[in-house]
Amino acid sequence: MRRMAAGANRTGLIIVGLFLLVAGLAVLAISFGLAAAVAPGLTPDAALQPVAAVFALPFSAVIALVVALILAIIGIRWLAAQVPRKDSAKPLRMQEDARSGVTTVTANVVAAAVEDDLEATPEVVDAQAILRGTARRPELVLHLDVDERADIDSVIADVADRVTRNASQALGVPLSAVGVEVAIARSRQRKQRSVQL
Amino acid sequence: MSARLFRARPARVVPAVILAILILVIAVALGWAAIAAIASAGSGSSALSDGVPGLSSLGEMTWGSAAIIAACVVIALLGLIFLIIGISPGAKRVIGYRMQTPEHIERFEVVLPTSALSGLAAAAADSVDGVSSVRAASNASSTNVTFSTPVRDNDEIRRDVDAAVTQRFDSIAFDRTPTVKVRAHRRQA
Question: What ipTM describes this predicted complex?
């Protein structure tokens, strides 16, 4: 339920993939003599001297260093983007009129209360909640680990009718979106929960 | 309408991490070569080939040499693989759940990851008499249950497991109830 950099990953993969594919195919075209019709000098038996000459130009080491730095920054930023983001709401401003004082509630406080409320349902083994959006348009994203023999329909009905209603009443507005991800708790071994006679 | 609350398709984290590390490795190698060239020549105007002796031998190779062709085939294949991974949507990892939206919520979305289907199916199969162990694998539309049993004539157990898992799934209001396939493995007790 945390957010991943899915869009950035796919864009990056497509750009790098296209670049490598086109570069590889272009050199292969030269290697198999297909480029000789377009550029007369580029036959398979021609040497790579023009390419090697680029690396022998003055200042090419400094340029390579700059390119290396740029690539390193891209690589590090891309790696850093892989950390899943919670994207919680900024502290909610709950007051009617800012002249008479400001009342703020942090998203984690509301989320922790919702988690406790969720865990009051007997079948729910563990729960995580994230509050996103604003005080006027709050969004709740919930992850439930329910027992494997639980009645899923009744757990979801309980979330829909009780937990989200409590959250909505606490915030004083209808929830603009609620997402529930139901997973099956598998922490305990089956044998530990069964009684053998 | 904003984006869906849960991403149904994979985010391609592993290929992205591999590619990012590859870019970092190239950056480090290139930076190393550049610093070596600058250090050996002692001036900022030095050429990259001063520090990397292999670069001058590159000029003696021909475009048609086997090493160049092999390297380019690998590069083009890698490019094709990254491109396909980036474009193809990938397998759905969640299954939708049908639910009436209560009046205090504007948009209500309930999903179960495919791993939850496997967990439910395994638990249901495990409750059948005669089953000694269960494995289940799921995608968004079907679940494969494989159980092992010491019983030789296990057709009836297989039918019971199928019934138990199907009944479990039918009791849950999925958007589209996944199909169930059951296989039995006989194992000596």
Answer: 0.81
